[in-house]
Amino acid sequence: MKNETIQKKRVEVSVGIIENDKNEILVCRRNKKGDHLFGLLEFPGGKVEKGETIVDCLIRELYEEVDINLPSSSSSSSSSFSSNDDSTSFSLIKLIEIVEFEYKDIICNIHFFKVNLQNNTTQQISPKPKEGQPMFWIKKNEIDYLQFPESNKNVIELLNQNKI
Questions:
Q1: 15, 69, 99 from 23: Cα distances, Å
Q2: What is the pLDDT of residue 4?
Q3: pTM for this predicted structure
Q4: How confident is the model at residue 85 (pLDDT cuts 50, 70, 90)?
Q5: Which CATH superfamily is domain 9-160 in?
Q6: What pLDDT was estimated at residue 118?
Q7: Domain coordinates of the chain in residue numbers?
Q8: Cβ–Cβ contacts within 10 Å for residue 105, how many?
Q9: Half-sphere exposure (Cβ direction) of 80: Cα atoms closer than 13 Å
Q10: Closest CA to 55 of 111, 102, 116
């Protein structure tokens, strides 16, 4: 019998670690039963589509998942944006971490970005879950007590050490 190696599919993923002006991080809970990693918490993001940069993927996913509307970008991994009324500015900072993680059937290259929400008015910035997922803000020092996928371990440690 031949010893065959099955080549796993590689998937590029962009993830946003969104921090508000209260030093809280936005997290979502995977809530589709039968879904990969059901019940765990995650940072908003998703798979890079064909012809899309990792930054453009992040911008699209943040809009689709949590209704944060950032303008299209260049292919740069570091950008700053302002809303039309200049009340809110978003700073997309360089990649914090790239994690290669092997699941049973795929290999994911996860690109973690830091997104700071800076509000120049007294109005509260309120991302909204657009896919029905539970979503909430947590203090950085509480993140270690929550259940995230194993692939997020390095980033969680960086958050705990206040290096992000």
A1: 18, 20, 24
A2: 53
A3: 0.80
A4: very low
A5: Nucleoside Triphosphate Pyrophosphohydrolase (3.90.79.10)
A6: 63
A7: 9-160
A8: 9
A9: 4
A10: 111
